Hints:
228 residues, mainly alpha, 3 helical TM bundles of succinate and fumarate reductases, two-stranded antiparallel ribbon, globular
Amino acid sequence: MNRWRAFFVSTIGSKIVMAVTGILLLLFVLGHLVGNLQIFLGRTALNDYAEGLRKLGPLLWVARIGLLAAFLLHIDAAVRLTLRSQAARPVPYAKTRHSATTYAARTMVVSGILVVLYVLYHLMHFTWGWVAPQAFALTETVDGAARHDVYGMVVAGFQQPLIAIVYVVAQAVLAMHLSHGASSLLQTLGVRGPLFENVKNYVGPAFALLVFVGYVSIPAAVLLGIVK
C-alpha cells in the first residue's frame, strides 16, 4: 500500500492522476453540454432529460460522488505539481521568456482556481438554488404530477444580463483551461507518433472552442429572445 501511495504522490504519479481525472472531467463537460443543449428542443425535452437523471436515484449519486472524487484528485495533483515546480526554482528567473509556451499554458493555475470558483457558483445557482430561489422553485405539471421546471429556471436565470455575462466570462476561462489541458493530457499518458505530434497543438484549442460555443449559445439565445 505504501509503495502504491508513494508512486501516486510522486511527480510521475501525480501527472498520471491529473491526466486520467482530466479525461473523466472532459467527458463530463462534453456530456453535460449535450444535455444542456436540449433546451433548444423546448421545455419538454429539457425537463424530460432532467427528470430522467433524477429517476436514476442511487446511480446518480454514485456518478456525482465519482465526479467529485475525480475533481478533488485533479485539484490535489495540480497543487502538488505546482508546489514542487515552485520548490525546484525558489528564485525566479531574472527575465521570463514565453516563446515556447502558450498563454493558456502559463495561466493554468489561475484559470484552474477560477474554474473551481465557477463550479461552486454554478452549483449554488442551478443545483442548490441559492442564487435565484424563486426560479429554482418553478414547477410544471405533467400527467397530473408536478416536476421541477428546469427549462423555466434556466431561462429566468439567463434573462438577467449580469448572470448571463458571468457565465460567458466563466466559459471563456474554462475554455482557456481546456485549451492547454486537453492537448497536454495525452502527452502525459505517453501517446506518441508522427500524427499525434502534428495535431496535438490543435486538439485542445478545437475542443475548447467547441465547448465555449456550445455553452455560451444558451445564455446568448435567452438574452436574444430565441429561447424564452
